[in-house]
Amino acid sequence: MVRLSDLAGELRDHLLEAECHGFDTQPWVTGPPLRQRRVAIVTTAGLHTRSDRPFVLDSADYRVLPGDAQAGDLVSTHVSPNFDRTGFAQDWNIVFPLDRLRELERAGEIGSVADFHYSFMIASTPDLAEPAAHELALLLRKDRVDAVLLVPV
Q1: Rounded to 5 degrees, what are φ and ψ at 146?
Q2: Is position 19 within any domain?
Q3: 72 pLDDT exceeds 70?
Q4: Which one-letter DSSP state was computed for residue 121?
Q5: pLDDT tens by residue, 96-105
Q6: Is 73 contained in some domain?
Q7: Strand positions, DSSP E, 44-91
Q8: Is the sign of the CA dihedral 86, 91, 96, 97 positive or negative?
Q9: What is the pLDDT of residue 149?
Q10: N or C: which end of the chain has fewer CB within 10 A?
Q11: 16 in a domain, yes or no?
Q12: Sign of CA dihedral 141, 143, 146, 150
């Protein structure tokens, strides 16, 4: 893991000046118990299928990841030199815990795993990703998703 003190001055200063948004800890909505919910993953690991287009600098869009994906189906093209892919290479569940969701579904802890999951890279400011986030919300609704596991990387 890269430490802030290890970064070059310009990059370190840029990160120190970045605005960190806070969020209320209250749920935005109420709903059924987790064992009845359909769950999708949204990660910022810059993942995509091997046949999909890679992420590029300033990407604010997302890639669709199939719910039946296997570890070897996905690659990460996260462009940050500070992004350490070691964990992903050893166990994809670190950035895309689909195996864990499948286990929870089999154990009856969640209702079902969504047909599709999504990955951003967010190599830009969050406000530039807002239109993609609104589009993604419609896709999640179409897949009947009522719970999302957010995996920030």
Answers
A1: -125, 10
A2: no
A3: yes
A4: -
A5: 999 999 999 9
A6: yes
A7: 47-49, 62-66, 74-76
A8: negative
A9: 95
A10: N
A11: no
A12: negative
- Give the DSSP letter of residue 109: S
Name every residue whose Cβ is closer than 8 Å to that of residue 79 and which is 6 or more positions away in sequence: 46, 55, 56, 57, 59, 121, 123
Per-residue pLDDT tens for 117-143? 999 987 677 788 889 999 999 999 999
Residues sharing a CB contact under 8 Å with residue 38, sequence separation 6 or more, in sequence order? 110, 111, 112, 113, 114, 143, 144, 145, 146, 147
Q: In angstroms, rounded to a whole number, what is the distance separating the alpha carbons of residues 103 and 101?
A: 5
Range of the domain at 75: 36-151
Of 49, 72, 48, which Cα lies nearest the Cα of 62? 48
Question: Rounded distance, CA 95 to CA 46, Å?
Answer: 9
User: And the tokens for 137?
Assistant: 């919300």
Place of tokens 């897949």: 143
What is the tally of structural domains in the chain? 1
Highest mean pLDDT pick, 5-14, 18-27, 56-65, 80-89? 56-65
